[in-house]
Design a protein that fits this description.
Shape: globular
Strand order of the largest sheet: 2-1-17-16-14-3-12-13-15
Structural class: alpha/beta
CATH class of the largest domain: Alpha Beta
Number of strands: 17
Number of domains: 2
Radius of gyration: 20 Å
Strand content: 25-35%
CATH superfamily of the largest domain: QueA-like
CATH topology of the largest domain: QueA-like
């Protein structure tokens, strides 16, 4: 794990995005020529392969963080991982409290102790199954806030984050973290890309624990990703298959988009899922795993020792990945969810 560590000055963690989404900086790397450029994101059309199919994750973040208290007055936090209860009325969640957590513990979101949740059981992954009262949708609607990461202003979101922490093309609700590479696209930039001959396709992967859970195993290959739901409709599946069949370059916007593509395209470059099928993936892309679905990746700068950093390393190698990250630090790029972007063009054109 230490092989994927790097030192980041705290001042380079972005607390807010740039005023205009596409005004952030962009570090581009061409694997074929082994060269890099410093650009702005509004230059992206000049860097992408001609007539590429750009694939986005259109999942939408839902308010999922609830500040709570116990009857004893102890403070707690409930982080809901699904925006709908299962058929048994249970909801998977993380629970943070100063005291140990037990089956039957109740957590309340209001002063009158009317709205809350009760622990029904615990899971092996450190999460809990909760029953909300009177029901989940009411509690989320009245008390939940948008779950920005804790490294951004201690995780306390405000009204501006309700805009900034959603992509402009977000459509289907279900994520507890934004697919952040997509945050750099504005309606104007999307229009410009369309005018210049780029086509778009969309997948939906609801970002959950699989994307942001830390890696705790010393051996990278021992890490088990949590399953996340994804969806690919018929029209977008046809676009992606056409690109694969005709060798049209595919550029994935974000690591979650790439994980969907690698989860449903086989070694013969055929979609292995029927259209309009809800599926799950726990795919973990790291050095040694073959990635064949894309010609390029647009991504953000990721946390040290994270599965996302390893995914980037799977494309260009660990040494080159960390070399580019060190370059970004030297050039004072802004890091993580609200930070600057990276474009990687692979040697496949």
């Amino acid at each position: 794990m230490k092989n994927y560590a790097y030192q980041l000055p705290p001042e380079l963690i972005a607390a807010r995005p740039t005023e205009k989404r596409e005004d952030c900086r962009l570090l581009s790397y061409d694997q074929k020529t082994q060269t890099h450029q410093h650009n702005f994101f509004y230059d992206i059309a000049q860097l992408l392969p001609k007539n590429a199919l750009i694939v986005f994750n259109q999942s939408k973040v839902f308010p999922s963080r609830l500040l709570a208290h116990k009857k004893t007055g102890g403070k707690a936090e409930v982080f809901v991982l699904n925006n709908m209860a299962n058929s048994a009325g249970e909801v998977k969640a993380l629970v943070g409290a100063n005291s140990k957590k037990h089956i039957g513990d109740q957590f309340f979101f209001d002063e009158a102790d009317i709205f809350g949740a009760e622990i029904l059981s615990s899971n092996d992954d450190g999460t809990f199954q909760l029953k909300f009262f009177p029901e989940l949708t009411i509690c989320l609607g009245k008390f939940a806030t948008l779950p920005i990461p804790r490294y951004i202003r201690d995780g306390v979101s405000d009204a501006q984050d309700n805009i900034d922490y959603q992509t402009v093309f977000a459509r289907y609700v279900g994520s507890v973290a934004a697919p952040t590479a997509g945050l750099h696209f504005s309606p104007d930039l999307l229009g410009e890309l369309s005018d210049k001959g780029f086509d778009f396709a969309f997948v939906t992967l609801h970002v959950g624990m699989g994307t942001f859970s830390p890696i705790k195993t010393e051996n990278v290959t021992d890490h088990q990703m949590h399953e996340e739901e994804f969806f690919l409709d018929d029209e977008d599946a046809q676009k992606i298959q056409k690109a694969l069949d005709q060798n049209i370059p595919i550029v994935a916007v974000g690591t979650t988009t790439l994980r969907v593509l690698e989860s449903c395209i086989d070694e013969n470059k055929k979609l292995i899922l029927p259209a309009e099928t809800l599926a799950t993936t726990n795919i973990f892309l790291h050095p040694g795993k073959k990635v064949s679905s894309i010609a390029g990746l647009i991504t953000n700068f990721h946390l040290p020792e994270s599965s996302l950093l390893m995914l980037v390393s799977a494309l260009i190698g660990r040494a080159k990945c960390l070399e580019l990250y060190q370059l970004a630090i030297t050039e004072k790029y802004r890091f993580f969810s609200y930070g600057d972007a990276m474009y990687i063009q692979l040697d496949r054109l």
